[in-house]
Fold this sequence. Notes:
Elements: E1 6-11, E2 18-25, E3 36-41, E4 44-50, E5 56-60, E6 65-72, E7 79-85, E8 88-95, E9 116-117, E10 121-124, H1 128-131, H2 136-139, E11 146-149, E12 154-157, E13 164-167, E14 184-190, H3 195-198, E15 205-210, E16 217-227, E17 232-242, E18 246-269, E19 274-297, E20 302-326, E21 330-357, E22 360-383, E23 386-410, E24 416-432, E25 440-457, E26 461-476, E27 479-495, E28 500-511, H4 515-518, E29 529-531, E30 540-553, E31 556-568, E32 571-578, E33 581-588, E34 592-604, E35 608-621, E36 627-640, E37 643-652, E38 654-656, E39 660-664, E40 669-679, E41 682-689, E42 695-703, E43 706-714, E44 720-731
Parallel strand pairs: 2-8, 13-15, 29-33
Antiparallel strand pairs: 1-8, 2-5, 3-4, 3-6, 6-7, 9-10, 10-14, 11-12, 14-15, 16-17, 16-44, 17-18, 18-19, 18-43, 19-20, 20-21, 21-22, 22-23, 23-24, 24-25, 25-26, 26-27, 27-28, 28-30, 30-31, 31-34, 32-33, 34-35, 35-36, 36-37, 37-40, 38-39, 39-42, 40-41, 41-44, 42-43
Amino acid sequence: MLFFAGIGLCAASYAQSGISGRLSSKSDNAAVAGGYVLLVKDGQIVNSSVSDDGGRYNLSNMPVGEYVLQVTCLGFKTIQDSLLLDGYCERNYELDEDAIELENGTVTADRSQVVTRTANGQRFYLSEDARKEHNPFRALQEIPVLISDANTSSLKMIDGSSPLILINGNMVNSGVSPVSPSDIESVEVINSVSARYLQEGVTSIVNIKLKKTARPYLWLEAATRHEIPADDGFGVGYFEVGNRKVSLYGRAAYNYTYHDDVKSIVERSNSTYSQNYEQTARKDGGQWIGDLLLKWQATDRDYFAAMIYGTANNSRLRQNAFGTYVSDTEQEYGSDLSSLDDSKIWTAAMYYKHTFAPENDLEVRLAYNYNKDEYSAQRIDTYDGRPSETESLYENSRRSGSLNIDYSKTFADKSSLVLGSRSSFVMDGINNMVGINPPFRHRKFNQYVYAGYGGTYRDKLYYTVSAAVEGIWAKAGDSGYGYVRPRGSASMTWAMDGHNSIQLSYRLTNTAPAVSNLNPYNISTDSLVVAVGNPGLKPQMSNHVSANYTLNVGRLYITPQVSYTHVGDMIEPYGYTKDGIYYSTYANSGHFSNVSAGASLSWRLKRGRIYGDGGWNADHYENQKAKNSAYASFGFNYTLNKLSCYVNVVYNSRDYTATSFTEYYRPTMANLQVNYNFTPDFYIGICLQHATGEFRTKTVTEDGSYRSITENRYTDKCLRPWVLLRYTFRKNPDRRHKLGTVLDGDEQGISITR
């Protein structure tokens, strides 16, 4: 029997047509936040609202007519009300916590068709079918702006970029894998980040909000994937055990590369020579990863976490070439190169969060990283049988640390305030062991402070604005500099109704040069090319403006968008020729701008999804004509009983720098995949990679008298299958600790080749 309790009066008020009111608990009259109020007509959702912390909801600008209003909220039974909307109506609903069953003929609203607009993004909800999934990445495949890959356990934006993953708003998390889809309350996608995240290079965020539970649980997962014949592969094991008070997460993984092969045809020339040769390159390597994360909910308001993380990575390259060299005379030319890069990173981090009141938090993060990197290379160039040997040997180290303090508060009127700071340091040492060279020391200290405010106007116009100041004090060898640079962001969303919205956003960022851009020592073993950094580089400043329109109707989601980016003092490759040798380095090359226009589309099927993204870019380098390129991607997934199939294609026509361009002859990804679930927690995946054929590129570099054309055939990236096995074990999955999860180490380590 349908339970209904509605209190209010409908009055004729033709100035505004709509309905508003308050949701409360019948047992204690407490406000119910997060309740979904759906306005349904002819079985279709035509408008929706989510109740705020005070239990208030509002639906406005509706045509006159008969509607069904449905209220659903986790922990409460559904309420349904039939009404004639002829002006303004106010209704308050008391929600009963007892379970109920709806009578036959009631409208079942699909919450996954509801998209809630926010100032800097959108909030999505999973369908009931998705919430019944055992793998969270399969459940998230129906979110229209995301690409969720269950086989690689990765989550990306539809444009291919990688977002920051938050769990319940926390940066401290063990990722998506341990999450049970039935616990996902909502998924918020933020594409205009506040100043809090700008200094860390974050451009998009996925915040997964979970329900709260309170009993012990155990989660285990193991997976292995291998290409046939052997090329790339991995093996990984995870665990998480605990309860709502304390839990321990751990991971151990090994990734390997076996015989990554590239065949190249190279033509290059300079003022004193020309050279043509064929080249083969083979890369092998492996990486170990391990981490442990302890989480402790000391009180209802205090949460602690501590993590240790380590990785060891080695990469070996063997390269051979044979051709001709022409200067005064033509000579036979050959080369033989072997190199080894061995790197290790250790990280320790701590996290504390105190909740003063709901939506009023203080967070503190402290991290320290230590990195060692050893790079060696030996090369023999032969001209008419006369060998010339070149050797490189580097021993490098890095120490870095950071202290983050963040405060946030949301007010009763839905406005919010954020304040915080980030203090960080980097200490690099590069030791060139060949010859007598003093160590190159790089020291950098950053102090970053920010503030932001956001709010809403009549639940239609959402806005957020934040500003920050960053001080950078650095010394690179004998060159020192200090800068105080602004950062900031602003975003505004106009939610015209439940199906249409427009978003405008602006972002100002600064990027300091990497140590590989500053290193003054030659890392090239090529006798005709010298590759060095520039210790005198300055940070580059970027301004980004974008606008998008979003239409969601039922299972259809469309977003056309345009953007403009302007970069000052851009750090770009720069070269010059001296005595017939090409010197490749970096410079603050002036101004750069990019104009982009495109659109994304997602159509959710009953058991799958079709999605795509595409557009056009125009790059404008100083004193150069516009350089145009196009990009496109397509995806498809469908599940029938125990069988799932996937199609993923990604294509980009060209990439540019100020002195070169790379042309792509085939898609960078063209995968056809089939999964079979033996049980809901155990499946096998078989994928046919590069279904469009062997991946090939062409890179052309022109800088003064130097010209180079390199055509690459990636013979390992061809019509080649891989096989994946993944098993997940969950005991008491409804009892896991939900508040926090991995202090991901953001330290990528020192590298003179990256």
